[in-house]
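go over my protein:
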Amino acid sequence: RLSTVRSGDMVYLFTRLLVAWLPKEPAFDDYNTVLGILESAKLELYRRRVAPYEDNKLEENEEVYS
């Protein structure tokens, strides 16, 4: 199960980290870079953790898209 840290707290921490990383006066490209970082992290988490979990559950249970 998840730790005692709430999801809102995680959003806050990520936001603080990314805002601190941005220049004092960010341009659109800076924001676009941050969004790319978040998207890449999301996709990597899915690829490395979620997809194998789902594959395992598919083997344990039956296919629902047949």
About this structure: The radius of gyration is 17 Å. The helical segments are 7-21, 28-60.
